[in-house]
Write a structure and sequence with these properties.
21 helices, DNA-binding, mainly alpha, about 45% helix
DNA sequence: TAACTCGGACTTTCAAGAGT
DNA sequence: CTCTTGAAAGTCCGAGTTAT
């Protein structure tokens, strides 16, 4: 088994593999002698086009068929046949042997979803919804359904990242695109605005020509494939990305960090939280080992190319932000990188990065100094995002941060308020000068609101116990219901409403970072807890709109992220439980003392309205 | 009638249990 | 340790369907 297996022959996709056509003579099992019984001209691997058409492939690159059909690239992917890791649930029935139940990684499914760790959740969504059904075509997808020949793939994309031209409308090639190409485009269209660390597409593809960043390309391809209907290629892409990134030959450098961060974000959103944490801890180790957190790294490894230097600064800071977000939303890790003293320059604005006009970087000390000097300078959106996640780090470092005392909470609240107050006017919303969404500010605000909820919830009076089953993102924290409407309650309600407002930006919801899923869940818990309380009964119209927005958004996100599917199923379960409890309460006549007949009817109608909307919007999720 | 689609026969590769 | 078995993942023949 030493030579000839497709997995060994092909280290990548497309351009990664062109000069190593597979053997056209099959290798017999074991001894290496040619088995005379096997068909003499079966190739070791057929290209994707031939495979899809069930046609004989000559195994060349490009193969004869692709050459004559002039269909552009002839793509080979590594075989998925064979070893897929140790089989789980081995031998539940000793009398019968069991097939491998492993599936393609993103859809590993089963009720062992790590997002549900620590919970015995009756309402946990069973993985019935085929989140990664290859047949799924996302309504907002720029790409077409999977067709091997890529027919009808002429599409218009609006993203500054797809080529070097800022804001340009990029028309896809007139040549039909291959699946890997579409995945890379989907990566830049959907994923990249939320985590813009790698080089813009044009520069990246140039860099990729020498085959030294195949692991990074593979990671991008896999995550891109989550957003489109990539067909059976998706599982292969994942395998490829993992194999190349964890290969012994891969140098430990900034590109590897970029690849691993991309993979871990993808896994985290695909309900592979534990695996994502492992990769996070590996990538943190590598980042520290290679000195990515130092100011000198960018100049030492940037080859005097300003854009590459900027890319390295972004790589550190995006890893930093992701580490913080993972810690903040799941509360299983502790934001390790927060304690690293990093002096990396702050990233510039997105349009500067894409245009290549990279200014001299500013530094965190400049940012901190402004607080004392009293002069408000304008920093990049990415810098405000970093500042926002640092506040989360400070909050997490509070002693006894599960149930902090009032004084500590006030200290952090002033940090959060200061962050908001010192934003320059252009950064107070999430739109840039051209009225397009500024995803960096979007995340910055998102983190700020999420911090506010996490910080104030323990001291608020909203009893979160009906939402105890919403554990899709983090374990439930019990909060005692108080008797008075206090300031903390007001803070979390405001934050939850602000988060719901963020749903309304006119961009595909799936182009936000997937961590938005967890923040939406936080917001939903607050809304639902509030709904359970009778003294908000006159607010119900607004509340209904907000719950509706959150659920609609979670529903849309479910099309890409399995974690969102779980979250929406759980939110629905909680809504049903609260509704049942409310009905039980209302059946007691003393409940309605002080209400007019009209108020009673309209309140009950509003409740029913909320429930029926939740029901219809989440038809595919578990109760 | 050429081109295309796809059911399904057959092969390869591995995990896991059985046998030595 | 090797052998056997089971199942997934693969190749591609060739019958049936569709397009020209």
């Amino acid at each position: 088994m030493s030579n000839g297996s497709p997995t060994e022959l092909f280290n990548g996709l497309g351009s990664d593999i062109p000069n190593q056509p597979p053997h056209s003579t099959p290798v017999s099992s074991g001894s290496g002698a040619v088995d005379s019984r096997t068909p003499p001209n079966t190739v070791q691997a057929a290209c994707l086009a031939c495979r899809a058409k069930h046609l004989k492939c000559d195994g060349k690159n490009p193969c004869g068929r692709c050459q004559t059909s002039d269909s552009g690239e002839c793509v080979y992917v590594a075989s998925r046949r064979g070893y897929k890791g140790p089989r789980r649930n081995a031998a539940p029935n000793p009398n019968k042997r069991h097939a491998s139940d492993s599936e393609s990684p993103p859809s590993a499914g089963g009720d062992s979803c790590p997002m549900l760790l620590g919970a015995t959740v009756s309402s946990a969504a069973p993985p019935s919804l085929p989140t990664f059904n290859p047949g799924l075509v996302l309504p907002e997808s720029p790409a077409t359904p999977y067709t091997p020949s890529g027919i009808n793939s002429l599409q218009l994309y609006r993203t500054p990242y797809l080529n070097g031209t800022n804001g340009a409308l990029v028309e896809a090639n007139s040549r039909p695109q291959t699946v890997p190409e579409r995945c890379i485009d989907a990566f830049y269209y959907y994923f990249y605005p939320g985590h813009p660390a790698v080089l813009p597409k044009e520069q990246l593809l140039k860099t990729a020509k020498d085959g030294k960043i195949d692991h990074l390309l593979a990671a991008m391809r896999w995550v891109g494939s989550l957003y489109i209907d990539a067909g059976p290629a998706r599982a292969t892409f994942f395998e490829e990305a993992m194999r190349l990134s964890y290969s012994r030959d891969v140098p430990k450098d900034g590109y590897l960090v970029q690849a691993m961060v991309i993979i871990l974000i993808g896994l985290d959103g695909s309900c592979q939280q534990e695996k994502a944490r492992e990769i996070l801890s590996d990538v943190e180790r590598i980042a520290i080992e290679i000195g990515l957190y130092t100011r000198a790294f960018a100049t030492n490894h940037g080859g005097a190319i300003p854009r590459l230097e900027e890319s390295w600064r972004r790589t550190w800071w995006d890893l930093f932000v992701v580490d913080g977000m993972v810690a903040g939303v799941h509360r299983q890790t502790n934001f390790l990188l927060f304690d690293i003293v990093a002096d990396v320059g702050l990233p510039c604005e997105e349009h500067e990065y894409t245009s290549g006009m990279i200014p001299r970087p500013m530094f965190l000390e400049d940012f901190d100094d402004q607080l004392f000097s009293g002069i408000d300078r304008e920093f990049s959106s990415f810098a405000y995002r970093i500042a926002s996640i640092r506040n989360l780090g400070r909050m997490m470092r509070l002693p006894n941060s599960g149930f902090p005392n009032e004084e500590n909470v006030n200290r952090i609240e002033s940090l959060l308020s200061n962050w908001r107050m010192h934003l320059p006017p252009s950064k107070r919303d999430c739109l840039n000068k051209d009225c397009q969404l500024d995803e960096m500010m979007f995340q910055a605000h998102m983190i700020n609101h999420a911090c506010s909820i996490i910080l104030h919830q323990p001291l608020s009076q909203l009893d979160s116990s009906p939402a105890r089953e919403v554990t899709a993102c983090a374990p439930h924290r019990a909060v005692q219901s108080g008797d008075r409407f206090n300031l903390h309650t007001k803070h979390i309600i405001t934050a939850a409403c602000e988060i719901s407002k963020m749903v309304t930006y006119n961009v595909p919801i799936t182009s936000h970072t997937h961590f938005f899923t967890c923040v939406l869940t936080l917001s939903s818990i607050v809304h639902l807890s509030k709904w359970a309380l009778e003294y908000f009964i006159h607010d119900e119209d607004d509340l209904r709109q907000q719950i509706r927005l959150n659920i609609g958004a979670l529903n849309k996100l479910s099309g890409v992220w399995k974690a969102a599917n779980n979250a929406s199923g759980q939110v629905k379960g909680v809504a049903q439980e609260i509704y049942r409890a409310k009905r039980a309460q209302q059946s007691n006549p003393s409940f309605w003392v002080g209400f007019t007949q009209e108020e009673i009817i309209s309140s009950m109608a509003a409740d029913e309205g909320i429930m029926s909307e939740i029901d219809t919007m989440l038809t595919s999720s578990a109760p």
